[in-house]
Design goal:
- The chain has about 475 residues and is mainly α.
- It has a domain of about 210 residues.
- The chain is built from 22 helices and 2 strands.
- It has a two-stranded antiparallel sheet with strand order 1-2.
- Strand 1 and strand 2 form a beta hairpin.
- The radius of gyration is 22 Å and the shape is globular.
């Protein structure tokens, strides 16, 4: 008993970031409980949220990374999870700044949910056990559902219910698959499952089916096919900074868990993963082509981007994994910048329709140029880091194919390149309407807020800078 208690205390002492986030959550709950519900109190709650996020990030940079198992093997703080946590905290800070510069007057509970997602993702990124994976993933999901439905308006509740239904379905499939893995190997830990499958004589087809079902959870977080149906409605209904966060942060956890599950099951996953990638890119790109609402378009493009993120996991090579990690880092700046751009456009036009953006950049030229940078980055063209990210994942696929890999890898490569070209059509709709279309006679005469434009410029600078200096991220990779 004494030894077990000592192990728990020792494990807890290595969770400085998680303890800071937990202390922040308790502080926010106390502030919401005792402060009056007014604008000043909400500003205090926002400031506390930002301070907790920034302090947690700096604490993370000072944390020594060890691969030791904590809490009897439930979690493991590896260099991979360390990098993922840094991305979660960066995305959290950006979204908090987005909320402030766009002058959203959100209730304090929103900030509890945002920090709750960051806190849960931190544990999800350290999961080394099916039980801890399930608990952390559900904590992320519950906070996400409430974040979508909290406004209690009809379209928010409808989107929240769809999100909940598809989330519950993916969770049920994940648990059913996990139960098969447990039944086959007699273990819930990733290491135990891997050992059991390596030393046993399991039916390969049954194991692959169990793995595919277990992958339902992380694929839902990634909004990858076939667990993507919720994305467009949720993107359209949810306030822009909140959906910007949900479009980024859960993907980090989903990518990590997908890798860990694929790594745990010692079989060739190339066919299964390639089909998921091809479906995600196909459905996301071709659905985005017909959209007239920019937020809904971003929902479909997020499905396609999930496919590109998964490309780096093909073969489970360290170069591919690093390529996906770099892609995820760049995706944070591109996507958060694109949503901030759309929010600023909506402030001018009162709409997210492409047609209502007509001529906006003819008045605000610099604003239009910044917006063009994000669209070029999301497409994957130079001179943006989006090009570098896609180049790295495609290079990984080509190296595996040329080294004697499956023929389907060539299809993934060619299909990815073709769909990158196709995505030009819908991503460039925004700059096309803003620069080339004739502005309406009753166009807005509002001026741009310089604080908003400054944050947008910083995000655009990051997208450009990481093209010329990718080592800023690559040197931090696991």
């Amino acid at each position: 008993m004494q030894q077990q208690l000592s192990h728990i205390l020792e494990s807890g002492s290595k969770l400085s970031v998680e303890l800071l986030l937990f202390a922040g959550l308790i502080s926010l709950i106390l502030l919401i409980s005792f402060l009056k519900k007014n604008e000043k109190a909400r500003n205090v709650i926002w400031l506390v949220s930002l301070i907790v996020t920034v302090v947690s990030f700096f604490a993370l940079t000072q944390t020594f990374v060890s691969d030791a198992l904590l809490f009897n093997g439930l979690i493991q703080n590896s260099s991979f999870s360390h990098f993922g946590k840094s991305l979660v905290l960066i995305s959290t800070a950006i979204i908090l700044l987005h909320i402030k510069v766009m002058k959203y007057d959100l209730e304090g509970e929103y900030y509890v949910l945002i920090l709750g997602i960051a806190f849960s993702l931190s544990f999800l990124l350290m999961s080394s056990h099916l039980l801890s994976m399930f608990v952390a993933m559900e904590a992320v999901s519950l906070s996400s559902y409430m974040l979508v439905a909290f406004r209690q308006k009809a379209h928010n509740l409808e989107a929240g219910i769809k999100y909940l239904i598809f989330g519950a379905t993916s969770t049920a499939l994940m648990l059913y698959g996990a139960s098969f893995l447990y039944g086959i190997t007699g273990s819930l830990s990733f290491a135990g499952i891997q050992q059991g499958l390596t030393s046993g004589t399991s039916d390969g087809n049954m194991v692959q089916i169990a793995l595919l079902m277990t992958l339902a959870g992380p694929l839902f977080k990634l909004s990858a096919a076939p667990f993507h149906i919720w994305a467009p409605d949720v993107y359209e209904a949810t306030p822009t900074p909140l959906i910007s966060y949900l479009a980024i942060a859960p993907k980090i956890g989903g990518l990590y868990i997908a890798f860990r599950l694929l790594e745990t099951v010692p079989y060739d996953h190339t066919i299964i993963l390639s089909i998921i990638i091809l479906l995600s890119i196909l459905i996301g790109n071709f659905s985005a082509l017909t959209q007239k609402n920019a937020k809904r378009m971003m929902g479909y493009s997020g499905i396609a981007q999930s496919g590109f993120l998964l490309v780096g996991l093909l073969g489970l090579e360290i170069t591919g994994l690093r390529a996906s990690g770099f892609y995820m880092a760049v995706y944070i700046f591109m996507t958060s910048g694109a949503f901030l751009l759309l929010d600023m456009v909506e402030k001018q036009t009162k709409s997210f329709q492409f047609s209502d953006m007509s001529g906006l950049s003819q008045k605000f030229v610099f604003f239009g140029i910044i917006g063009l940078i994000f669209m070029v980055g999301l497409t994957g063209l130079p001179p943006t880091a989006g090009f570098t990210a896609k180049f790295l994942v495609f290079t990984n696929v080509w190296e595996q194919y040329s080294g004697g890999g499956h023929k389907i890898l060539l299809w993934v490569l060619l299909f990815g390149l073709i769909n990158t070209a196709i995505s030009i059509y819908y991503y460039f709709k925004i700059p096309y309407f803003m620069f080339l279309k004739t502005p309406p006679e009753n166009k807005s005469e509002n001026s741009l807020n310089m604080t908003q434009l400054s944050l947008l410029t910083i995000l655009a600078f990051a997208v450009l800078a990481l093209f010329f200096a990718p080592q800023w991220v690559q040197n931090q990779l696991f």
